[in-house]
Amino acid sequence: MKAWMDDREKLLITKHFSPDKVMLEWGSGGSTIEFSPQLKEYYSIEHNKEWYEDVKNEINVLGYKNVNYNFVPQNLPNNDGRQSEYTQFKDYIDIVDTFDTKFDIVLIDGRARRLCAKKIIPYLNPGAVVIIHDWCVRDVYHCVTDYYNILEYIDDTHQTIATFKLKENPLPNAYNLNMGGWERTNENYFKKTNNKMEISLIQPGRNNLKYLKWSYDSIRKNQGIHNVQICVADDASTDGTWDWCLEMMDKDPNFNAIKNDTDKRLGHTILYDRLVNEVAKYDICMIYHADMYLCPGALDAVEKYLTDKTIVSLTRIEPPLHPPGPEKILQDFGVEPEEFKEEELLKFLYKHSHSTKSGLFNDDKITEGIFAPWAFYKKDFQEIGGHDPLYAPQSKEDSDIFNRFQLNGIKFIQTWHGCVYHMTCRGSRRNTVDKAKNIYEDSPEWLAQNQRSTRNFIRKWGHFVKHDALMKPIIPPKYDIGFIIKNCNDQLLSILEPWCSNLYSDYPYEDYIAGEEANTSYNLFDRLKPYDNEKNNEILVTIDGNTFTQQDFQYIQQLSEILADSGEPAFHGELGNITIEIFEEMNTYEHELIKITWTNTFTEQN
Q1: Between residues 605 and 51, which one has the greater pLDDT?
Q2: Which residues have C-beta within 8 Å of that of residue 576, sequence separation ≥ 6?
Q3: CA atoms within 13 A on the CB side of 159
Q4: Is 205:257 a contact under the CB 8 Å cutoff?
Q5: Beta bridge mates, 293
Q6: CA nearest 107: which of 130, 135, 82?
Q7: Backbone dihedral region of 103: left (phi > 0), alpha (psi from -120 to 50 degrees) or beta?
Q8: Residue from 484, 471, 357, 348 nearest 406 by CA
């Protein structure tokens, strides 16, 4: 068992060792095994029972006699998405009162680190060194400079580290554990942001407050030295989201929020764009879900790969609630914030980023695909008009904008060095605080909207959403196709209307339009025409309702690809029971779909 840290970080610690010194650590593991033989006495405190047993067995096998090893469970669950508070880890922090000794070296690498740094002050020998792991990349720990002077730090390793000595005159409240530094979590000790990335994270939310809190905490812990604005839109929530937003805007100068004051859901299709265009103050933005934990180093990976005309997606680690795919990693570290196994996730990340066998998180590994969270330049987003309100409130708006980005020359990069842990679908699809039964079933509201959005996607693009295994869009050509249907009926009208530019039928369509027009921004009277109406489409498909089969419908669904592969001007032929006629021209129109130019009549009507 080896200490879970870089060799340079180990050297920064061990340079202070000598056989006559006494050391304390919060957070045990390989450090306990590797460091304790080099010191007179070694005290260790651990809160995770399973991990404690593993380390204890190793100590016993090795026969170490100078280790005072202590298991101390937390008092209260840390389930509110905030930094650990004193009441949650009181016994874990206060156990040092029972040791009746003072320490020459203190390594703080466990829970409630800023509080442990305060607690240990009375128990430090003169000249004692205090070491905080991950200090450089977690601004939340920087409040310890109220009472410590920094000696040395390493800020270019995966985790980072810093060493400290106690100030002669600590600031007031240095010993007050109930003032744990939460009020100063957004100050950055290094002030290096002039040379680092400035990025606005875009987070609409509806009745998912506990996820927003959890996500917020991870961003502020793991943003590193980047300057991160968190932009939240409260979409008519009833769970206290807006009260929390007001509280956070008072506490955090780089937290900004807007509110949907109506009782009707706008959805993230609309609110993504409002946040990007009205709230985000930086040139770089990232679409970021409320149910995502930002892993250490993730924004470094974004900064590394994001250039002009690119979009960078972080790799998702998810619990096995959805089928596997080559673009993500299925590994269960909890499905709710209150059961999130943060330490296990961080150990998993470290293990695989340093493994030559798995290579999961290799610094140089990239693939080509796009999905949330995705970082982009605001100008590229605005150039194509943002999300299409056709899909409001949600569903398929992402696939649509990904198609349009690709057609507009944007390159997609998925970095495997930067990750999020994604609990999945807690915005609306499986949000139990909203309308979902449980986290394993899609809500009826989402299912109905997904059906509407799927039909609108087909109307616009002429095909279902398509992408390769790594989530890069596949975009067949868009043709001008008219359907001529005789012996039509209600069912045929409903299933075939989205698949063409115009539909000419011998069946009355007024009732269909009356029932469908609330579900789309398209003018259905422009799309549906009488059977004998003049036909100006470049391609005509003739269908007889009496002979139309499921196989014929499959041909319709694949028609874009069939025409791209085999179609040519002045063609007339049959495909199953349907007849296809291509006139003198066979133009494609997908590039005309790149920019949003029409008004959002859908949200105005609804």
Answers
A1: 51
A2: 549, 551, 552, 555
A3: 21
A4: no
A5: 421
A6: 130
A7: beta
A8: 471
Q: Which two tokens stand for residue 181?
A: 């530094």
Work out the average pLDDT over 555-572: 91
Q: Name which of 517, 526, 525, 528 is nearest 605 in CA terms.
A: 517
Calpha distance 90→73 (Å, rounded)? 10
Measured distance CA(48)–CA(346) in Å, rounded: 14
CB 232 within 8 A of CB 204: yes
Torsion angle of C-alpha atoms 269, 274, 279, 284, degrees rounded to 10: 50
Cα(460)–Cα(33) distance, rounded to whole angstroms? Answer: 62
Extract the tokens encoding 419: 């990750």
Is 584 exposed, middle or buried (CB count within 10 Å of its CB: 0-12, 13-18, 19+)? exposed
H/E element holding 119?
A: helix 113-119
Cis-peptide, bond into residue 508, ω within 30° of zero: no
For tokens 């949200």, what's the residue? 603
Single-letter amino acid, residue 329:
I
**Structure confidence at residue 362 (pLDDT):** 62
pLDDT at residue 318 greater than cutoff 70: yes
Contact (Cβ atoms closer than 8 angstroms) between residue 204 and residue 272: yes
Provide CB contacts within 8 A for 108, sequence distance 6+: 25, 26, 27, 116, 117, 120, 130, 131, 132, 133
Under 8 Å between Cβ of 170 and 146: yes
Using CA atoms in the order 78, 84, 85, 90, what is the torsion angle rounded to 10 degrees?
80
DSSP 320-354: TTS---TTEEE--S-SSGGG--HHHHHHHHHHHHS
State yes or no: pLDDT of 599 exceeds 60.
Answer: no
Q: Is 377 helix (H, G, I), strand (E, B) or coil?
A: strand
Q: What is the pTM of this model?
A: 0.73
- Between CA 338 and CA 442, with CA 257 as vertex, the angle to 5 degrees is 50
For residue 545, the SS3 value is coil
As beta bridge partners, residue 52 has none
Query: Rounded distance, CA 45 to CA 70, Å?
Result: 5
- Taking residue 246's Cβ as centre, other Cβ atoms within 10 Å add up to 13
Contacts of 534 (CB under 8 A, 6+ apart): none
The tokens for 127 are 């000249």
- Record the tokens describing residue 432, joined without a space: 């139990």
φ, ψ of residue 590 to 5 degrees: the values are: -65, -30
User: What DSSP string describes 427-469?
Assistant: TTTT-TTTT-SSTTS--HHHHHHHHHHHHHHHHHHSS---B-T
The whole-angstrom separation of Cα 44 and Cα 34 is: 13
What count of residues does the chain have? Answer: 606
Percentage, residues of the chain above pLDDT 90: 70
The CB-side HSE value for 58 (13 A sphere, CA atoms) comes to: 17
- What domains appear along the chain, each with residue ranges and CATH number? 7-184 (3.40.50.150), 193-461 (3.90.550.10), 481-587 (no CATH)
First and final CA of the chain: distance in angstroms?
61
Confidence at residue 83, expressed as pLDDT on a 0 to 100 scale: 64
Prior bond of 373 cis (ω within 30°): yes
